[in-house]
């Protein structure tokens, strides 16, 4: 716990001091390389693999985007690094297709053309699925402390547009007042009264969808980049649908 407190102290110092940020990045280069290696499935080569530079920038971004309510810093940084590497992979995938389709795939005698015949990017899909799986596993563990499981969330999510809008308003208020998210993590209880009043929604609506709101609020406390992206996309829709 003392080590985590020291990391958080260094991160907050690095937010205000560029040299402190550089020192923190230098100190955690082994961590950054390890996270890049997980994505590449091999050690990155400095000066050759752009992914290492992407991971370093993501770590820097994590420093400036981190707050205590997000949980452990290194876990947050890990999620952000993986997310940025996936984004980079998506942008660069068109360049991968200029490779000869007759070239054998790594570890396989079948040519790349056979693997890409269905028009899908299997490498990206695998990386995205793995990142999503890890986020869901972490969220599931965190929800257990609140007595909430994924089936509970599915059963408890809003089915009507009016109710979904109420949950949106409560979530937006919580995002604008991070002390409410800190209270949620500290007490393991949702501050329904303050969310209802601040969001301008009926308390009974939030009480009826408490398990859904617990999951939604937790997702905004600890770097669940992929899950948050799914929620944001879903909530842009004009029809009522569950955002998790």
UniProtKB/TrEMBL annotation:
Q: Name one GO biological process term.
A: DNA-templated transcription initiation
Annotated GO MF terms: DNA binding; sigma factor activity
Activity regulation reads: Negatively regulated by the anti-sigma-I factor RsgI.
A Gene Ontology cellular-component term: cytoplasm
Give the primary localization class. cytoplasm
Annotated compartments: Cytoplasm
The ranges the UniProt entry gives for DNA binding are 192-211
Residue limits of the RNA polymerase sigma-70 region domain?
24-94
Decide whether keyword Transcription is in the record: yes
**Key words of the record:** Cytoplasm, DNA-binding, Sigma factor, Stress response, Transcription, Transcription regulation
What SUPFAM superfamilies is this protein classified in?
Answer: Sigma2 domain of RNA polymerase sigma factors (SSF88946)
Q: Where is this motif: Polymerase core binding?
A: 50-63
Mind telling me which Gene3D superfamilies this protein's record contains?
1.10.1740.10
The protein's job, in short, is: Sigma factors are initiation factors that promote the attachment of RNA polymerase to specific initiation sites and are then released.
Q: Which family does it belong to?
A: Belongs to the sigma-70 factor family. SigI subfamily.
UniProt-recorded name of the protein: RNA polymerase sigma factor SigI
Q: What organism is recorded for this protein?
A: Candidatus Avichristensenella intestinipullorum
